[in-house]
Design goal:
Chain B: This is YCII-related domain-containing protein. The complex is a heterodimer of chains A (about 425) and B (about 120). With about 425 residues, chain A is an all-alpha fold. Chain A has 19 helices and no strands. The radius of gyration of chain B is 17 Å and the shape is flat. The chains are: A mainly alpha (about 425), B alpha+beta (about 120).
Chain lengths: ~425, ~120
């Protein structure tokens, strides 16, 4: 925001910074002013493009964010004017918009007004009517300024597909007249839960791709963490966001240890714990003692919090053998009580095997109804530990056949041998 | 249709120091209560934890037309309201029953009906 004019950094880096830090703020201001979400993103995109072209020759503007805002605002006004002409309407609308634009000035809005607009924007982008995937893409694009290219990479679809998905979401907002407002106190918690679910979907998309050869695109998962932090900056102590941030930080703290130099998957017990990000673990553990989680918390919040506590057990164990598996089993019991799905039941079976031996693990696995390759991989592992190598090989082969992720399949093949 | 305010007094200083097992018990218990409310057809209007009472502000008249504003809760006591549920229901006995179960799981609860 405040570049040092004596030693100008490369313009591209300055632009990247302002996009990263101010995109959502600018989008919120523009949406607040014009109520035309469908125009805002294109206008900001055009403004960023113009900046890339003009800053190198014109020099870095004193206030890059204000520069982008002014250009984007002009684009929107042009567009509105064009629409008005096309509709052969008297351009009253435009004049009105122009007046409003003038009145509010360039970045002169007081901070809380902008923050309100940002909360409105986050809630609008994560509106349940959009569907979680569309909402996640739109929020990353509009609130955080993540490029369509990167969002496409996160969700493993082509860039045109993602661009179309984002456009559809924007059109839906305009067509359905979804309000750019803050819902009433009784509706707000539900909307914040929808926002949390959206952010978590984007986060897990970066870690658990169904196919493709990149096991994780952790940098992009980090963007989802940023989305939760934006939410928390606007609604500090919101239980669902506190619990979710703790969960994400704990999972994310292991990103550098999950793949070895060859790009192969490293399982939790074999990970180099010195490569875990300790500051993130510390922050998450502190979040879990927050008073926000002591009182009436919803089921969704409780699910995030308990998952975070499981992750914290792993994060705080000094070595893999020192992991308190009995406690982890107890936590999975809580999680299943809270209504968690079959993947939690599978994880519980794995914990049972660690706490009470592979035979107990097999027994726990018998009731797991999860489709896909993972239950078979677990069964293979338990059978191998019991010395049933033939049974283990058959289970692993079944797992390989069902697995559609290159890295995981390579890992499973290595086990078959 | 009546409305009910369930206040949750708790010795708030301890929460952060409690072992994680106690935190989980709380999570499980609140999650269960949410499900019991839904199953019994009671409508949850709003529920939330409150910020610590140390962050409360108390206001009272000074007797000369002004207000005395002090930091902290109105009454000094070890137990302060740590959160609340605001519920609408046609079925008070049902609501009382699940609230009692909630208390039996370890929660302190003050059950208040809104005056009609």
């Amino acid at each position: 925001m405040t570049p040092d004019r004596m030693t100008p950094r490369p313009y591209a880096a300055a632009l990247q910074d302002v996009v990263r830090d101010d995109w959502g703020r600018l989008a919120a201001v523009l949406t607040g002013q014009f109520r035309r979400l469908d125009l805002v993103e294109d206008a900001l995109g055009d403004a960023a493009e113009a900046a890339a072209r003009r800053w190198p020759s014109d020099g870095l503007p004193e206030r890059p964010a204000a520069w982008l805002l002014t250009v984007a605002r002009r684009r929107i006004l042009d567009q509105l004017r064009a629409e008005a002409m096309a509709a052969r309407r008297h351009p009253l609308l435009v004049t009105d918009a122009e007046h409003r634009a003038e009145r509010s000035g360039v970045m002169a809005d007081p901070g809380d007004l902008i923050d309100d607009d940002r909360l409105r924007l986050v809630l609008l982008c994560t509106h349940p009517a959009l569907g979680t995937e569309g909402a996640a893409a739109l929020a990353l694009r509009l609130v955080l300024g993540v490029s369509t290219h990167d969002i496409a990479r996160l969700f493993l679809v082509s860039e045109p597909t993602m661009a179309a998905r984002i456009t559809r979401a924007k059109k839906k907002i305009v067509a359905c007249g979804l309000p750019f407002g803050i819902p009433s106190a009784t509706a707000l918690p539900e909307r914040l839960e929808a926002m949390a679910a959206t952010a978590y979907l984007a986060f897990t998309a970066g870690y658990a791709p169904a196919s493709g050869d990149a096991l994780l695109r952790a940098d992009l998962s980090g963007e989802a963490i940023r989305l939760v932090r934006v939410g928390l900056s606007l609604r500090p102590n919101e239980p669902v966001l506190v619990a979710l941030l703790a969960l994400m930080l704990l999972q994310h703290s292991r990103r550098d240890a999950r793949l070895d130099a060859a790009g192969d998957l490293v399982l939790l017990p074999d990970q180099d714990r010195t490569r875990w990000h300790a500051t993130e673990i510390d922050e998450a553990v502190a979040l879990l003692t927050s008073p926000a989680l002591r009182g009436p918390i919803t089921q969704q919040t409780a699910l995030y919090a308990v998952q975070a506590r499981i992750a914290a057990e792993h994060a705080l164990a000094p070595t893999s053998p020192a992991t308190r598996w009995t406690r982890i089993v107890a936590l999975y019991d809580v999680l299943l009580d809270l209504g968690a799905g079959p993947s939690a039941a599978l994880a519980r079976a794995v914990a049972v095997a660690e706490a009470a031996g592979p035979a107990a693990g097999l027994a726990a696995l018998a009731t797991v109804t999860l489709p896909g390759h993972r239950p078979h991989a677990a069964r293979g592992e338990f059978l191998a530990r019991l010395g049933d190598h033939q049974g283990a090989r058959a289970a692993y082969e079944e797992a390989v056949a069902l697995c559609d992720n290159d890295v995981e399949r390579r890992h499973l093949r290595a086990r078959v041998r | 249709m009546s409305r009910y305010l369930l206040l949750l007094p708790a010795p708030e200083a301890e929460w952060a120091d409690l072992p994680p097992e106690e935190h989980e018990k709380g999570h499980r218990s609140h999650g269960q209560f949410h499900r019991d409310l839904a199953a019994g057809g009671h409508r949850l209007i709003v529920s939330n934890p409150l910020e610590p009472s140390a962050q409360a502000t108390s206001m009272r008249p000074d007797g000369q037309g002004n207000a005395v504003v002090t930091d902290g809760p109105f009454t000094e006591s070890a137990e302060q309201i740590a959160g609340f549920y605001f519920i609408e229901s046609d079925d008070e006995p049902g609501l009382r029953a699940i609230t009692e179960q909630f208390a039996a799981r370890g929660e302190h609860i003050e059950f208040r009906k809104l005056a009609e």
